[in-house]
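WARN retry 2 of 3 for item q-0093 after timeout on previous attempt; input resubmitted unchanged.
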Amino acid sequence: MPNRSRRKELVSDYKQTRREAGVYRVVNGQTGKALLGSSLNLDSVRSKMEFARQTGSSGVLGYQLKRDIERFGIENFELEILDVLETSPEMSDAQVRADLTALEQLWREKYAADALY
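OK item q-0093 returned
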């Protein structure tokens, strides 16, 4: 029985742990265009990029990039973390999403529309 209670404790801790949320961009090194996005879990975005590199997959990073990844190769794309959102345990996912949306919009204003996918 101690294993079950320990497992429940670990699952509970995992669910309560806040992931690193923030704004990122995936930059095409050949054209300079970038996909700008935000995520509640930046580690997930990093994992997707790593998976795309290992498998040569063109669709894992978003349909907007698919054609250019097939044309230029995944090795010509880089992930940049632009901003990490400061969160607190009291914040709900909805609050974090709202803050991420505002933060992403601030970053979008820094780039010309034709420089983004």
